[in-house]
Write a structure and sequence with these properties.
Distance between the termini: 59 Å
CATH class: Mainly Alpha
Number of helices: 8
CATH superfamily: MetI-like
Protein name: Polar amino acid transport system permease protein
Main location: membrane
Oligomer: single chain
GO cellular component, one term: ATP-binding cassette (ABC) transporter complex
Strand content: under 5%
Helix content: over 70%
Radius of gyration: 21 Å
Family: Belongs to the binding-protein-dependent transport system permease family. HisMQ subfamily.
CATH topology: MetI-like fold
Shape: elongated
Number of strands: 0
CATH architecture: Orthogonal Bundle
InterPro entries: AA_ABC_transptr_permease_3TM, ArtM/GltK/GlnP/TcyL/YhdX-like, MetI-like, MetI-like_sf
Largest sheet: none
């Protein structure tokens, strides 16, 4: 039996897998951002029951490993008769995981807006919706940019967990190529470099935003 050698074709396969890694990251950040924003608003609600429900959701999501969420989405629903494609299950799992953390990040950013801003908007007879729209969210959004971009780095790296259900992202592609070439050093150095090329600029962007926005 002749073993394959890690070359341009194999590196091209890694680049294709990187495309799926980035796509899954975008799905997680968009879906998780929308859900997380709703949970963050609920977490800062004036109604205690809504705050409690949102807080419970965040604690549950942050208290469960993302791998367990993935198992429940893929294998659990499969046992219940719902056969989900790996991309759909991975996207749903990463969305739920991301929402729990973004909700807490953004909740902190909303509550970081000085109390005087809330009081000033109340003195102008603004409704709660107007307070959020014109006063609170613009300031909270500025504060939230650095930690949100920083968290995106974690999302990129955590997509590797989805390989457990057969989704071929970057880490899984590295495993497949290594099984075909038996050259783990070359293969996984290439995988690590690709992760670095994506994550390092995001980390630097997060630090730059933190300095630029004084957040």
């Amino acid at each position: 039996m002749t073993l394959r050698t890690f070359g341009f074709d194999e590196f091209g396969f890694l680049l294709q897998a990187l495309h799926w890694t980035l796509l899954l990251t975008v799905i997680a950040l968009i879906g998780g951002g929308l859900l997380g924003f709703a949970v963050a608003l609920a977490r800062t609600s004036s109604v205690q029951a809504i705050r409690f429900a949102a807080g419970t959701y965040i604690q549950v999501i942050q208290g469960i490993p993302v791998l367990m969420i993935l198992f429940l989405s893929y294998y659990g629903l499969s046992l219940a008769g719902f056969e989900l494609p790996p991309l759909f299950a991975a996207g749903a799992s990463m969305t739920i995981y991301t929402s729990g953390y973004l909700a807490e990040i953004w909740r902190g950013c909303i509550q970081a807006v000085p109390k005087q801003q809330w009081e000033a908007s109340e003195s102008l007879a603004m409704t709660r919706l107007q307070q959020y729209r014109y006063v609170v969210l613009p300031q909270a959004g500025r504060i939230s940019l650095p930690p949100t971009v920083g968290f995106a780095v974690q999302v990129v790296k955590n997509t590797s967990i989805t390989s457990i259900i057969g989704f071929v992202e970057l880490a899984r592609a590295g495993q497949l190529i290594n099984n075909a070439t038996f050259q783990p050093f070359r293969v996984f150095i290439a995988v690590a470099v690709l992760y670095f090329v994506v994550c390092y600029p995001l980390s630097q962007l997060s630090r730059w935003l933190e300095r630029r926005l004084h957040a």
